[in-house]
Amino acid sequence: DYLQSESDYQTMVVSCYTPTQWLNQVIVVGDIASDNAVAGGENASDVVALQQMDDYNILTNNSTLEDLWTSAYEGVNRTNYLTDNRDVNLAGESIDFEGKDALYGEVHFLRAFYYFNLVKMFGDVVLFTDHKLGLSDFGNFERSPKEDVYAQIEIDLLAAIDVLPTQQSQQGRITKYAAQALLGKVYLYQEKFDEAVPVLQSVVDGPFSLVENFDDIFLFEGENGPESVYEVQYSNGQPYYNWAGQTRGQGNYAVQQCGVRGFNGTADMPYNSGWSTNLPTQDLASAYEDGDQRKEATTFDVEAYANDNPSLNVTYQVAPYKNTGLYNKKYLPRKGQTSGQVELNYENNQRTIRYAEVLLMAAEANLRASSVNQALAQTYLDMVRDRAFGDQDHRVTATVQAVWDERRLELAMEGDRFFDLVRTGQVDSVLGNLGYNSATEGLFPIPQREIEISGLSQNNGY
Amino acid sequence: QNVNVSGTVIEASSGQPLPGVNVVVKNTSKGASSNFDGEFTLNDVPINSVIVISYLGFVTQEITIINSDPLSISLEEDAESLSEVVVIGYGTQKVTNVSGAISTVKSESIEKLKPLRVEEALQGSASGVSVIQSGSPGSKPTVLVRGIPSFTGTDPVVIIDGVPQSLDDLNSINSADIKSLNILKDAASTAIYGVKGGNGVVVVTTKGGRNNEKAEFSFNTYTGVQSVDRKLGLLNATEYAAMINEGSVVSGGDIIFSDLSVLGEGTDWQDEVFKDASVSSHTFSARGGTEKVGYFLSTGYLTQGGIVGGEEKSNFNRVNFTANVDFQLTSKLKFILNTSYANIKSKSVAENSFNSILGNAINFDPTVSVYNDDSDDFATYGYSNLLLSEIFNPVQRLNDTYNESNGNKLYGKFEIQYDILKNLKITSRFGYTYWNQVGKSFTPLAYYGPNNVSSDYNSDGTVKTQVVDNGDGTTTTIPSFHNSVSEYTNSNFNYTFETFASYGFNLNDIHNFDVVLGISRSKSTGEGFGATRQDVRDNSWEWADISAATGVNTELNTNAYTGYSYQNLERRNVSYFSRINYDYNGKYLASFSARRDGSIAFGDDNKFANFYAGSLGWVVTNEDFFNVDAINFLKIRGSYGTVGNENVDPQYVSITVGGPSYNSTANSNGYTFGSEFVSGATVNSFSNTTLSWEEQTQYNIGFDATFFNNNFSLTADYFNKSVEGLLFTDAPPLYAGTSEPVTSNIGSTESKGIDLTLGYTNTGAKKFKVNTSVTFTTSKNEVTETNSDGTAFVAGGSYFNGQSQLATRFEKGFTPGYFYGYQTNGLFQNQADIEAHATQDGALPGDIRFVDTNNDGVINDEDKTEIGDPFPDFTVGWNLAFEFKNFDFSMFTYASVGNDIFRAYERNAQFTNKDRSILSRWTGEGTTNDANSPRYTFSDTNSNIRPSDRYVEDGSFIKIKSLILGYTLPESLSSVFSKVRLYAQAKNLLTLTEYTGYDPEISGGILDTGIDRGAYPQARTVLIGLDLKF
């Protein structure tokens, strides 16, 4: 029997964090399914799951979606197991220790995080919160309306906000601010702008600041920096090599994916090669105005790089499929940041919620709340744009559309674009001519395996 | 008064002298054997003593010596030459009285065949048993006794001298020690093994002592060479480059090889990794006994190299010592001590995947030379500038393969037999197996060229480095890669303690009863530990040892020195068993057995199970009214019963603690906070408290017959087994997460088939003796249910060809492990073809046309269907032996018909090498309509590489498994040796098959059989040997 001491509880909570690392493909999907990126890869039958997203021809057996669904539910089961055994453990004993409530704040946040990922991808999903599922539960669930799922997410996040500290001794531990930021985002997804305003305001007022040089945010040195509200942590200290569960080590699999093929040069050339997937589009690159430092920091033009740095003797293979000439600079694989089975062990943290996004969310909430606060919205938007251009000469009037457009530029290749387009109702107009099927209502299909095993209903359009 | 006795022994039927007959003075150790002319002499024999004259297959005679007159002894052939006994569970039974279904392989054929593993002797020789061999030295073959009734495992139980062992243990037994192999096939024979009997039972009986015989020594030796039978037809360098150019240009890219003329043939990597390897074996044994003590002592040494990589990298070496000794302690008490020790040392190479040694040889770039000859380049080996991951120079991979394992096994039994009454015997035996293995492997740092992601070095020869954050604002540069040495040890011990009483009696001389009643307890335990340490001096195997490596854990590198240990959960069984065998005057036969089994493996609610079986037989030829001269013996048999299967892990909820998981669901733990890794814990398994055994019901009907003066024999059986409560690991809902799935009793299967053996011997022939037999084995297996709605299935047969693919399924309505994929229907010749066909995304002219099996107008996953069956429709074994004067010749041919193979060794990346069949690919309308030859392009928009019948081939084959020619020296030539035989043998001499891969025998578990990922082919072996007896 486990859960017999404080350290058992602490250790088990650590593993509630683990599946957050397995969700890195949500980020990839969020851009590939939008106008920001294409799937790339070696050929049409490479990374088929991502090609389907890119081509809006998603089969219900899409392996990436199946993996994400399973991973998020593993997180739900792990957090449920802890909430189930919170007051008394399996042996019927009550284990109390200092900080147990705050520890459970992390558990509540994590469950909310898993359900938020599920609901934004799949809409109505299976909702259970009282225990880890066992044999007798299998097949006994239906999908719950997404409103109920969101309600549970709010309950969990509010519970987390109540007990979480504003600072944690370990980097990557969830703070009250992370929970408030996520709750703010969850409110935006439900268009509950009045509720979003105050909760986001507390994060805006928190100890965060924008990093002057945008590119630095995504360097190793920039991890858990002043702009970081919540980051999923990865490391290269565990030389994971399980290709049967390639996203389930301590390393960030999405980094290897977006590298340039056959990328090589002198020892000073800082990048490793990769698989040329998740390639930014020229459409994205051209959305940036001149002088916007985010362009260079987001879309990496390999040919220009080679030409601009002759001393590095850069050689590379042109992306063999869906080449755009551009690569995801934010997570471009770098030398010295991986170990063991190099493809699986990149240490790059996923910048899940940045302060810049909190500002943009606060701006949007203030613009769309029942009592509009245009001035605050303008202030927050200006902060983001001023950092991007390094001056105050590129400000634009804060309209809802302006904030939305800014989100694309600021958060490109960070996995928000597709979900933003869906929640803001722009998806048909923006992605329609790329082949997006409006019958899908912005949702991905419930994995076919789950439908076969558990008898769930399928989303429309599949 | 003593006299010298001499005499001549002849065979009664022919009048010919019988050499080698044992003549012993009863109750003494004095004895002799007859010479080539049937003559013997015994000196100094007391008057009125009794001499015993015995010879296998003949009726033993006893003669009281009254004077010194020469004796003329005429031995009658044993009227029941069929009267040999077979070893059944907890006893023996006369063959004529058996009413169950049992196959037997006798020591003579094992001695002749000289199998490397015992199972080789079963292949094709025992009907009802399918053996699919593997080529890797010492590796375990697939053995199926009467089909595949179970999902959780198909290995039969192995009983060695009454002691349960496993199929894995057969690699440690010296085939020269074996007296007989009996395979118990039907429920009536196996039910006495209850919950373990469901996959059949292989009963191995080793040689024992012979009382009252002088020592007989025998020495057998052979040595030979093994080589690869055939190679694949792959593209040479020029052809390869031309194809790569075509693939690139067709998909809009550049020419990659600008000058084909300089490339030539390039390197055939197959030639570089296949090496001739030696095999040799020496065994020596002594056998004999006094009145009170019998002994069989033997020792053997076997060494076999592997043809993939050669004997330096791939080998199997075994040393055996066996002592089987029995003591008649008192007139009622007998003590038997069997002890065997085996030492097994082996080395192995990566097998059975696209990036194994053979997989690399098939797929690597042929334009690369084996070694790098550019002195400015740090590389030792040639490398490809195109293949930058996954596939490597196979010679380099081979040379960087360093491992060895060394195992010691001690097994045997202590047995006491006590005769309480004349026919009432108590047997108590303690059988044990102890296995301890240590092993070591070394992973050196390697360089595969400057652009290869797996290179551990920079191109200047320095190890790649990384910068890490010390957590205080400073950073440190440390090496990213380290060589490492791993060492492990594991051991397990299991014992079975059994006591049973057997009582034979008869009523009125016609009702014969044989009753067995007993109890058995068994337990198995296991444990192990291992360690890995980085930084081996000189990057060399010579220094590869934990104690000599220098890795020390630091905060920045916590993997420099790591270890693990484990203890297996104890497994315990307790069983009660009984059996009654009855015959009425040898005419009407009946047998009934019952067993009650308790196993720790099952859920709390279902610890115990009962198994019953019965059989009936009728010896028709013993009826007075039966009067057909041509038929010498005819017995009709039938049986029915239940047996079980407990191939499942004990049920409990496990918590795993630590970090990354390498199990099937990758249920990893732990998290990195900042740069500090913190291990975590989570629930890793479900438990099923209602889990129960798998219940198999089998009926069998058959007959045994001999006819035409016993020259012909025929045994035929039909069986049908069905399994209820199949132990099946159902896929849990995905919303249950990644805990390991749980096994439940859901589903059912059915297997049915025919076993047939037909034999011919020209009994009584003098000069030219012929012995031939044919076995025929068929079984049809079907999964009749998985879960209540029949939707649950398990997919397997995974391989990688750019995508992770699954090629097999265990699913309702199909053979277990059938091949699952798309059906093809030729190629699209033009755009009109594509438009006329169901919607198939990405298809272009020259691409494969897949069949819209569900007729919904779209080609998608739902069109996947059955595309093959890895298990044969039937197998046939044919033994043919001649003896002419002193020459003996035997040939064993084995055929497997209807087994399909899924070709999965092709990696199919843009720059991997390809099969020559690509030269006849589609190049324009009308060039070909063969779905195996679609257009070649880098941009495979149609996914021509998806699992389809394109990769399924008919793996039917006929193999001449063994061909032997021997010559026995006339006895007159040697005074020392009673037998001197020289022989030459060829194994796997000829394989006839249409399969294009290396070897159509692809062994594996149910879901892996027939999936050829570059499986280790069986070697063709040519050897010469010498058998001596003295």
Features:
heterodimer; A: 462 residues; mainly alpha; Serine Threonine Protein Phosphatase 5, Tetratricopeptide repeat; two-stranded antiparallel sheet; 8 strands; 6% strand; globular; B: 1030 residues; Ferric Hydroxamate Uptake Protein, Chain A, domain 1; 22-stranded antiparallel β-barrel; 8 helices; 47% strand
Account of the 3D structure:
The complex is a heterodimer of chains A (462) and B (1030). With 462 residues, chain A is mainly alpha-helical. Chain A folds into three domains: 1-164, Serine Threonine Protein Phosphatase 5, Tetratricopeptide repeat (Alpha Horseshoe), CATH 1.25.40; 192-230 and 349-433, Serine Threonine Protein Phosphatase 5, Tetratricopeptide repeat; 253-348, no CATH class. Chain A is built from 18 helices and eight strands. Chain A has helices at residues 6-21, 24-32, 48-54, 63-84, 100-122, 146-163, 176-189, 193-204, 253-257, 282-287, 293-298, 302-308, 355-368, 374-389, 400-411, 417-423, 427-431, 448-454, and strands at 37-40, 125-126, 143-144, 228-232, 277-280, 299-301, 326-328, 350-354. In chain A, the strands form four sheets. A two-stranded antiparallel sheet of chain A has the order 1-5. A two-stranded antiparallel ribbon of chain A has the order 2-3. In chain A, strands 4-8 form a two-stranded antiparallel sheet. In chain A, helix 1 (6-21) packs parallel to helix 5 (100-122) and helix 5 (100-122) runs antiparallel to helix 6 (146-163). Chain A is globular. The mean pLDDT of chain A is 94. Chain B has 1030 residues and is mainly beta. Helix content of chain B is 5%, strand content 47%. Chain B contains eight helices and 56 strands.
